[in-house]
Amino acid sequence: MMKLCAGNTRSLLVAVSLAVGMGMLTAIDTARAEYGDIVINNYSDDAGMRPAVFPHWFHRIRFRCKVCHADLGFRFKAGGNDITMLKIIDGEFCGACHNGDIAWSVENCDLCHSGKPGTKTQVHESTLQKLIAPPKK
């Protein structure tokens, strides 16, 4: 009986490992936006890049709103900021912290540019999106 249980446990572990591995492989190719994340696609599609996904709540649990919205000048509106890679590299917007000293720098494009191509600039899965009915065609 013990050998049967050990064999079943081993088989179960292999099956779970494969399922997790397959899930991780498919997740690499999909957008990584979660509730409250901000998809930034003002220029990405035109530049042949995937839209950037800003993990708002990941940052919000670490910093007060004023850090970004007052000190760094981010407007309280998705699409309301003229963010470009040149500005980020020059230390504006995300580049104020993502400079290689405070947080990782911009060399790893896929860390931010992980959205689905063609996604409009928006707050992903926002309450506002759920309250406004899509236009009838």
Give the tags.
single chain; 137 residues; 6 helices; Cytochrome C3
Chain-wise SSE layout:
Blueprint: H1 2-28, E1 38-40, E2 52-54, H2 56-60, H3 65-71, H4 85-89, H5 109-112, E3 122-123, H6 127-131
Antiparallel strand pairs: 1-2, 1-3
Please tell me about this protein's structure.
With 137 residues, the chain is mostly helical. The protein folds into two domains: 1-30; 32-131, Cytochrome C3 (Alpha-Beta Complex). 39% of the residues lie in helices and 6% in strands. It contains six helices and three strands. Strands 2-1-3 form a three-stranded antiparallel beta sheet, with no helix packed on it. The longest helix is centred in the first third of the chain and has 27 residues, at 2-28. The chain is globular, with a radius of gyration of 20 Å.
**What is the element string, with H for helices and E for strands?**
HEEHHHHEH
The number of strands is 3
Name the poorly predicted regions: 22-28
Which strands sit side by side, in order, in the main sheet?
2-1-3
Q: Given the structure, what is the number of helices?
A: 6
The CATH class assignment of the largest domain is: Alpha Beta
Note the main sheet.
Answer: 3 strands, antiparallel
CA-to-CA gap between the ends?
64 Å
Q: How many separate domains make up the residues?
A: 2
The averaged pLDDT comes out at: 78
Class by helix and strand content?
Answer: mainly alpha
Strand content: 5-15%
Looking at CATH, which topology of the largest domain would you report?
Cytochrome C3
Shape annotation: globular
